[in-house]
């Protein structure tokens, strides 16, 4: 009874050595997950979720009670240069309008959407639904620094 | 008995398991184990990176191609001397000045010898230079952007072949003329060539910070053909060596008449001595017309300037700066070993390979042991400067590179092989066939003080049956060899683009981290940029209409333009607002007589389009950019010439 076990062990060990061994880089998710059909919860842009922080570098952020006007002014400048091509202030355009965004999303979620859009539209349920709602128009990663993204968020508070 | 049975079973199981996943490398004709072993040496798994970059000249394509080693995969074609419809180089208004010459706009050339910039004799990976052979020019390509940043024309030169080789701190890039010509050009009888034509050897200074090129001086040599060159390095730094042929100074039937002399020369120039002479005001400023074309990365725009004079030096003005080393039979390649001691003259019609000694050359000069002179230039004695000969190593030697381990590798065109031989003992160590008729070969860093060994590739002139047949015209073939052992091992065959003459290769880690991902919008200083949509507009200036347009996934702003009239010339100045790696957009306009554009993130490029017919004409993005790429389009309305419709433009307005 012991012999077959030994043999199986040898084959198993040899097999481990003989195949693969290369370090894996970014994994494709193609074909690995069965798409889950989500129930209709209304347009993602109108949904309110004040708990999800999204996926990305910003995990915790507390806003001061008072708006930092200097920071907001800088944020407006960044926004006009980097974001305005797709996001009008107060109407739906290529993407959703930022006015009132903090009534629907956490500050962390907003910053992660700016800083990490590729992963957000793949992994965050709200961002995924937003991508579909906006006809598959991808949120461009404009490579803002975290500081600039924070300033844009402050600008959103003034809208 | 039981035990033997058990062990045998275990061994069989082991063997089966270890070999079970390795079938892909086997190919017909080779034994399985050997073939798969070689396949592994060139296999770069999907998503993995090659270990080396190789930059191959594009020959008659006029461009430079970028390959990976060991895979032999081509990553990019960098347009240099030729218009390139793929991205609009040479068609866009910003890039057209790069192809200006004193002969006017020249949209092609024949590019030959790329060479990577060096610091202390080692490849530093900042720039790569390449020569335009036909309309003599030298280009500098930045290895951050992988774009042609500068082209300088070489006056008094014709057939810019012994170029573009770089001194060990990139002090100079050197351009030698192959054809001697009247200097200055004038109307004269061709038969009066001998004694009257000149060969200009041009030393172009390279600004250490920006790489900007400027002709420091030209040495006007006797009317020989200057074939190839290389700088001294290490102990011979400060000298430059040029092979010559047609020292007979024949002007017709060179095939016969330029092969009469038993020995031609390697011309050597003490450029430090001439530099000092020039810095003290030596030489003569001579009227000349040549262009200097320079890309400004901030404006994304090239400016072409016409230069009016060049400093020329007659060798007799600087005694002790120029000598001639007799070298058998029309030497082609002129290659200097990593120590700087040995100068290899690849006498293409000679049975032996001639190697000169730098130390012996200095000694002969010091003792003034001259065999005579040519037009006042001292000729040294062959025996006095000879270090040794590699005796009958093959037929038709052309070029030599070095591995840094004391070995040299020489190509033989006629016998179609690479021969490995030892410096100092001159013994042949190994030979391997090439397929077929090899020209140059390259070892990463193989013409510097620090070769990186490991790989060598041979670039062949004839392809014949190496690949699936594709009609009479074929790409050339190259072969990659592993040179880490005593014997060379053929690893891979790969097709190359145009006719790659020389190539330069470098370990990937020296340049890959510096590779630019995108242009920063904040740094864009293009005079007609629109770096956000509020800057978009359409402006009329007589018959010229300037459209300041932006593009981002996936729309143009503006995308509706009216008020253009027949006879107008419309300039689309388009800025890509993306600020992410690898998100270019294209721009194509129906009926454009030039090309479409490919615009990198943060970049501004301009396409000129003539409004010829009344109608409403579409434009669109040519580079699939997002799921809404097919929606990335717009219209321009062209009205009759006498129409009074005002210019207007819009995007997404109700």
TrEMBL record, chain A:
One of its GO terms (molecular function) is electron transfer activity. Keywords: Heme, Iron, Metal-binding. It comes from the Bacteria. Gene3D superfamilies: Cytochrome c-like domain. Residues 22-42 are annotated as: Disordered. Residues 70-159 form the Cytochrome c domain. InterPro entries: Cyt_c-like_dom, Cyt_c-like_dom_sf. The keyword Heme applies. Pfam families: Cytochrom_C. This is Mono/diheme cytochrome c family protein. The lineage of its organism: Bacteria, Pseudomonadati, Bacteroidota, Flavobacteriia, Flavobacteriales.
Automatic annotation (TrEMBL), chain B:
It comes from the Bacteria. InterPro entries: Copper_CuA, Cupredoxin, N2O_reductase_N, Nitrous_oxide_Rdtase_Sec-dep, Nos_propeller, NosZ/Cyto_c_oxidase_sub2, WD40/YVTN_repeat-like_dom_sf. It is found in: Cell envelope. One of its GO terms (molecular function) is copper ion binding. GO terms for cellular component: cell envelope. Keywords: Copper, Metal-binding, Signal. Residues 1-25 form the signal peptide. The keyword Signal applies. Pfam families: nos_propeller. This is Nitrous oxide reductase apoprotein. It comes from Winogradskyella epiphytica.
